[in-house]
Every structure is written in structure tokens, then in C-alpha cells.
Design brief:
396 residues; mainly beta; Immunoglobulin-like; 2 domains; 5-stranded mixed β-sheet; disordered N terminus
Length: 396
Amino acid sequence: MKKLLVILSWSLLTPLIITSCSDDDNSEPENTNPGIQSAYSVDRLRILDLTPDLSAYPAADFEWTIKSKSSQEDSLTTMGRNLSFISLYTGVYQVSLKIKDKKETIEKQIYITVNKETGTYSPYIAKVYDFLPAVGQFTNVLPKWEEGDTRESMIAKAEVITGSSPATISLGGYGGYVVFGFDHSIINMKGRDFTVLGNASSSSCEPGIILVSYDKNKNGLPDDEWYEIAGSEYHKNTTIKNYEITYHQPDPNKAPVPGTISWQKDIEYIKWTDNQGKSGYKTKNSYHSQNYYPQWISSPTLSFTGTKLADNYADQSGNGTYWVGTPYGYGYADNALNNSEASKIDIDWAVDKNGNPVKLSGIDFVKVYTGTNQEAGWLGEISTEVAGAYDLYLKK
Ligand SMILES: [Ca+2]
Ligand SMILES: [Ca+2]
Ligand SMILES: [Ca+2]
């Protein structure tokens, strides 16, 4: 069975990089330089973006064709101006760019050598770039805030989710987030590509929204466009897009004193307001007496925006004693058993901010945030946990 070796994608929105020599207006059309080289080399599982200068062909069609040199068979053909190339395997790939307009068809051959990487890639998270939990019963605990900790030191503490033996961090209530990345690009092959680990069970699902991006500007930082993974709830009318919530730091005169909370008596604690005209309180419960507002944030309010899913917890006892959080279908973090198919993510589910599907050849960064704003009685607020992630192709 022939495997699909290489993934292509393109974007009409990518600004063209003008690197070609200025074209001589009198030159023969077939000599016009589209600003791409005839050969490139890239490491395995690194994205190579080719953005030819096609300004001389404003009305032309472009057809990228990729052939595995060893087999000479097309593995994928796309239309578009730019090419994003990544391969899981080493070897030399022949790529053809056909530029067709009314007058002519020009074909340019490009050879891409895919080299073995230096060292060994890890399938697991390599770095945490950002971490800001919303208010929650595990905020300031997972990871632990200590006097003197700053935004930077708390991000460093969240690095417990890296590597092959990750620990758990809590993102707190709605909107709390973590941003992490890998030491290579996760390739988007046919089917599901990576998984985010949590601590869900079949009756304790605290779904987190997942976003992906790739290092388009090649600066090594997650400052590129984010694409939301459109999970099973994305198109439902119970899902609110562009939701915004603001948490208000608790008034110390009203906040319960640590150690004084009585059993099963929840206390209105941290006020929240949202852009849907609603407001309420995050409660403090008897199990966790620390401050629930991130202690390293001095601002009196903390706001988060994103997609909000409908509440998924319900009391099945009728008397408030048995709260069950049922899973959503697919495409979320902390929403299915680790290692289950339902916890795996297909990069093809990514959409842009307008909800249009995007074709990404691979990703470098992942963002996860808590996707619901619910208090589940004595269980307290629903908060996504993240306990690692890995590339499904590299994990043996
Ligand atoms: Ca895929
Ligand atoms: Ca970047
Ligand atoms: Ca959880």
C-alpha cells in the first residue's frame, strides 16, 4: 500500500515574498523567473513554505504537483499560489509548478531534499510558551503559586506538562489557557495527528477548546494566526462564538477566610460578568481553601475570550449529590480517556476565525483553554486539565 508521503497546502492570503531578480520585460515568457529555486533542502518534519513571486501572472491558474521521485507517482495535486511542504520521510521529492494563463503554460521543476534531523525528535511537548489559568479551585495549586512567583515563573512551572512523564496543570474556569509547542512540526497526514492528555473519565469530562498554529513567520514563537479545531459542537447553536468573560478579584472583606469553609456549603466568591449580559459567582468549596484568583495577577479584573460550549454537567441524583460531566463527540481536550480515539485530534478540523476550513501541512503550536463556564454544585467550577500531549506519528 502506498502511503501518502507529503502534504501540500496553500494560501492565497500569504503575502508574496519578492525575492526574484527584476524581470526583463523583453525576455521570453518561458524565461520569466517565478522567484523560486530549482532545489531546496529541509529537515524531516519541518515546514518549507514556497511563496513564488507570481505577480507577472495576475490572472493565471497555478497547479502544484508533487511526485515522489522514487515512485514518480503523484501523491497530491493542489491549486493555489503558495506551497507548504512537509514530509515524515527522508528522500528527494520532485515538485512541479504549472502556471497557466491564456497565452501559455509554464512548468517549473523543483527538487526538495528531505534530510534526517540532527538529534532525535520527541513526540511530547517540548516547551510551554504561555500559561494563564482563570479562577478555579486548583488555581495557585496546579501548579503551585508561591510568594514572589511572577507570570514568567508560573509559565516555567507549567512546564511540568512537557516530556514523556508529564504532570497535570489546571486551567481554571472558562478561558484559562496554556500554549505549548514541540521540537518539530506535527505533520497533517490523513486521519488524526496528535492528542492532548487530560484526566477525564467517562463521567468527568471538562472539555477544553484546542487551537493550532504553525510558525509562519519562522521566529520560533507562537505569534502567528491561530486556527480553532472545530470539534463536534462547533457548528451547534448552543455554542457561543466570540464569548467574553471577566472575573473580578474577590473583595477580601467578603472572601471566605481559609479554613473556615463548612462542609458542602458553597460560598459566592468571585464575581464574573460576560458579554451575553449575564453574571454570577464562582463559588469556593470546602475542599480548596486557597485564593482562587491567580495570585500573580495584580489587575482587579481578568478577561478571556473565545468559543464557549454549552454546560455538560448535570446533577443526576436530583438532590445535588451526583454530578456527571458527559463527553462531547470529538475535538476537545480533557473530554475523553487518554489514549482513546476520541481524544485524538485531526489537524484537518482546523478553521479560521470566520469558520472556514484551512488546509495546514503541519503545526508547531497548540493552545488549549477551558471551554465551559459552569459551576457543578459541590464539585465546584468545571476546569480543563492538561497533562501532556504527543505527536501520534512519532509516539511508538
Ligand atoms: Ca490529519
Ligand atoms: Ca511565529
Ligand atoms: Ca478534568
